[in-house]
Inverse folding.
């Protein structure tokens, strides 16, 4: 570094800042030139808290056009109300919300108080399967369906109209476990796969999806155990924007200490594929919900590892929004 | 307990519940018969987080009629905006908010993001001293002034119109330190008094107040180190009401772990004097901000000890509001 | 307070300190004049963490003579090794440790690493039932048996030699649930009783105990939900004594956030009965493990409520030991 | 993956495990063939808690031969006693501990209780400067001096015998700030350098070191803000080894929530240079303690960025030791 640069630290700082801002916005700008990617998010928001963090990332991403959000699994109507409020509080009251078929579950709807206050609650919600099929017909080959809950809606779509379903551009899903199970964080030897929540709660639908022929991008437990630790929480929960305020409240209703942002990797992958490099595998879903990599023609691009710190360096500034 | 009762556990539970509900509402009912007590809260809300918890208790207390809330110390206008939003979010947009004279301070306004979003912000705020004097003139001998910040507004009132000031029914204040200092929690020998924040940040005003002749009820450090620990926070922050949501957000912007609810004891005392038994003392404020109990005619009722658990058994169900 | 006292704050502080020290030691002194109470602690130390905090209080109490500690429930041998180390690390290697009969359980032995290091491990442990019977025979009518685990050892004693068992001075036990269940903390209406751990894990033994005729002092869930919150933990875990160091390590192996010091109330009650006032009841243990208060001649002194803050003001300074 | 492998998941798991164990031990084995690197650690252990985590890594690394540990800054004798106990408790009572010259400081010795218990305390400690010079003379060109405190001892060495000092193989130090300051974690634009603790507390010694001609490997704030968050703490503090037990106790005496393992990167770099890639820079220390990168011949290899997650995947399994 020469003396000239040294003689003006302020100028240098300014340059650094410009480089940062430019680098941050470059991707957006270049993508903004291309039309935004059309997405639908299919979510079981309200039990675990990562779904809310995934929706938050989508809302803060101009590269995406959110055609709608659909709810799946369990009390789908209350999940839809939770989304009504989340979207209303954060300035997106016009994003459609559709409810999937309700199902019985032992899972705890931790965030029901947020949903039940009636804030921004819509008069009614259309049916998820109808909504998605309608959207696909209007935008054939264009839509990325982001599946971050058990796959009941997807099974219903395939049952109802497999031909239209195949006109999805792709499905990007959180689900499955190839070589790591929950709590395999890379500090100790991996303990091998286990049936994962989104798969095991609707195994037949998962099997239909992997046999459907639609391009699948799969983010299993292996690459999605992203821990929102105390340092990162303090940053996000002090940001004081309507979006981070909503996440703060949902975090507290969830009631545990450390969220694992499984679902969020689907969005992060769409926005920046380097955050979760994939490789083609043939995935087979067995009757217990194991997702095995077997010999055969690839039916999914699967992300088997990720850099947690790189993920958060992408996620936090974007969602923080200060 | 006889066999009959035993034979119907459901009936017994129902009776218990009725007794509880009745006991809870009895005080309210009996007081509701008497007119509510007129109060004005004078607060430095926005730095430490206990002021917000104090305002929350007032809002949930039908025994009180909040004539207005005035801000004191430091950036009084931003404090007023914080109150605008807090009152707006929780359904009390019509409670008047008046701003005291701004002053310079090194104290950190931790909760400024909550205040600055512009939510429910009012076009302007009247002057605190004018507002309070006007209210006293309209309700002579009726108003309890609750002082939970440094005493600048009170000093200004006394300077401006001591005669009207004396027409307050009483001042209930958090401030001072008689025999205990901060962190003297009763587990180890008390380490003796220290100058306390609300006093030492405006010693002349404190001296004027104790010489004013207005009845003073004083809650010093000795009886107000009420720790909102993790168990209690989990309950309040999962309640999911607009009021507890606001407290949750302000807690996070405050950014520390354990709030000490100093200020809240003033309200709790007004609502239930048994929570902080007082005795008459002659209090003298020295030039360093010590509040000494000296010989002389009593000029304050001072609460020297309290039962923290009893306080929270009163506070939590009332503010939780589920 | 006159001017003379005021003129010498140092002298005053000194006097305060003397008063405190005197008050603290007075009970000990007066009791030291009387012979210490002979106790045996029967514990399932190693699963939940409150047992360790109970043993810690006993070790710091000159009013008590610990004849021995016996282990009960599950892996009693590893529990005995945990005690070997705890006693060894804290300077009490000569207190006898005896192991009860092992039993199968689904309970998690959270603190096994502390136990398994081999530190201070004794070559062998005598049998709990034999040990206790032998001690009763040597000290008839003298021994307080403190039962803070499931009651298997006690059932075995009664089966083996009911006559000797009746020569206990008394049993002080943590167990049962009269009107409150776990998480009934007094902030909301109590939800009524539930079968409590120490009872429901050996119902026949509990029934035998309440029918035994030995004086029973019972501390149920109603009076023992004593939360060691973050403020109290910070104090104890920074004390840096061998005893608090052991508690710190066991706390971390336990692996949760907030210990509830159920078991400790038995010891606290023996040392200071005012901390848990009892009343005589006839307790009946049903086949599901409910402990019902029924009509009939009293068979237990039961503590139905306690002041948590008073408990900790007793516990912390004594165990802290600085 | 072919059918054969699939048909035996157990075998496959076994193979995975073998690969992991082999990979883990390979580095050790290959290095064990070469003689271990001789190191001396110069530390201000006892104030911040990262020094203890650095010493812990050294103790668990067969690639290193610890010739001794020297204390610097403030109460060097109590720091030496802390090391006496730490080394004694963990089975290394024969590693020499030498104390540097004491100095006055406002820094808080948070972990003094651990040090003062007298456990494993040695009768006396030799003088740090004498000890280091003596070791260099015995092992010329062999020793890596790891500097993780203010640089007083190093300044004394250079003053006393610059010729011998130059016979160090190298100095690996934590210190300085090139482009990032404390709390610049990569989520938001870096705010530029600031004077860093180890430099600013003895600027003249830092200037001497950078002018000394000894090879310097420098780990500044830019690459050392390694957060031991709640997930990582839970793993380490439940390991239950003598070493992790010591870290647990020191963590609690330190008394804050999230340790930043600044100092540990020096050791990690020595053991695995890929964890902190360096580049040659000319570093100049100004009168305020800024460490500026200027034009001129390189006098240090400086690590300007690191992968926090890679660091912990190295650190945790090695120190956990289960």
């Amino acid at each position: 570094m020469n003396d000239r640069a040294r003689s003006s630290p302020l100028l240098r700082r300014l340059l650094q800042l410009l480089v940062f801002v430019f680098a941050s916005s470059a991707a957006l700008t270049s993508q903004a030139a291309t039309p935004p990617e059309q997405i639908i998010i299919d979510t079981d928001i309200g039990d675990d808290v990562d779904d809310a963090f995934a929706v938050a990332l989508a809302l803060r991403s101009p590269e995406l056009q959110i055609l709608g959000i659909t709810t799946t699994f369990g009390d789908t109507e209350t999940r839809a109300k939770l989304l009504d409020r989340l979207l209303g509080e954060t300035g997106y009251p016009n994003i459609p919300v559709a409810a999937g078929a309700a199902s019985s579950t032992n899972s705890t709807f931790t965030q029901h108080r947020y949903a039940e206050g009636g804030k921004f609650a819509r008069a009614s919600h259309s049916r998820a399967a109808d909504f998605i099929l309608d959207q696909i017909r209007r935008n054939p080959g264009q839509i990325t369906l982001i599946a971050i809950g058990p796959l009941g809606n997807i099974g219903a779509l395939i049952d109802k109209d497999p031909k239209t379903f195949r006109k999805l551009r792709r499905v990007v899903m959180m689900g499955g476990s190839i070589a790591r199970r929950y709590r395999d964080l890379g500090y100790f030897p991996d303990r091998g796969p286990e049936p994962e929540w989104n798969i095991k709660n609707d195994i037949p639908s998962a099997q239909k999806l992997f046999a459907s022929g639609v391009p699948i991008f799969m983010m299993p437990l292996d690459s999605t155990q992203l821990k929102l630790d105390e340092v990162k929480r303090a940053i996000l929960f002090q940001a004081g924007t309507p979006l981070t305020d909503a996440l703060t409240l949902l975090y507290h209703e969830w009631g545990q200490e450390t969220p694992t942002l499984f679902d969020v990797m689907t969005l992060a992958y769409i926005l920046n594929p380097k955050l979760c490099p994939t490789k083609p595998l043939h995935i087979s879903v067995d009757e217990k919900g194991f997702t095995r990599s077997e010999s055969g023609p690839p039916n999914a691009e699967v992300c088997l590892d990720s850099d947690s710190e790189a993920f958060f360096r992408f996620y936090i500034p974007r969602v923080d929004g200060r």
